[in-house]
Amino acid sequence: MSVTHSQLQYTDSNGKVYEGDLYVPRTTRMRKLPGVLVFPAFRGITEFEKEKAKALAQEGYIALAADPFGKGIHPKDKAECFAIVRPMIIERSKLLKCVIVAAFDAIKAVQCVDVNKIGALGFCFGGLCALDLARYNVGLKAAISFHGTLTPIPDAPLDKIIETAVQVHHGDSDAHIPKEQVDGFHVEMRTRNADFVFSSHAHAEHGFTEPDADSFGLPGVKYNKKAADRSWASALALFKEIF
Predict the structure, then answer these.
(1) Which terminus has fewer CB within 10 Å in the chain: N or C?
(2) Beta pairing class for 33-39 and 3-11
(3) What confidence category does residue 29 fall into, taking pLDDT thresholds of 50, 70 and 90?
(4) Mean pLDDT, the chain, as a whole number?
(5) Is the separation of the CB atoms in 25 and 108 below 8 Å?
């Protein structure tokens, strides 16, 4: 299925402007289609996230690669990326919530998006974003994390997660996400009475979905094709089920 690509500008509740990459199937014919947010890893939107959003559009969804940094902000190296991401992780219920809710509102406003059928997925930092949207009960139908941070929102009540099917793909050899965090996530999801699936991929390390992961120069970050392919197939299967 052929798709169209365009830049989508949107603002958060503080008036900050963002610019995401929007992919739409050409054959919408004004039909309402499910929408999917693609939250990027710590580098922001790269060709990897664009390709994933395009692939989702080819499956018949309207996909938005969401901008976590703001329009015109393009960090030059890892240090600059982490300098932007770190405050959002520290202030999740304030700074990060503002960013991810803005993206959710943006895709809801896209013409031909069925506002009752919106999902989100994310990689690494983006996985945290997708899971936090589920935690906030904004009306998300599915939240999928690939090698994402799993800690609950600090000082937030563990309310039930309503409507959202949660799917987590974790590298069994991921040294960046310790066992205590994995165990804590299971406790949180059970406490929240969530509909969740947790997959631990054998031999997979952090960043296992990204073909360029080996070049990041980060210890414990490595591409694993088998885990990448299996986790992506599972994500598509969940969207097909939910939508």
Answers:
(1) N
(2) unpaired
(3) low
(4) 96
(5) no
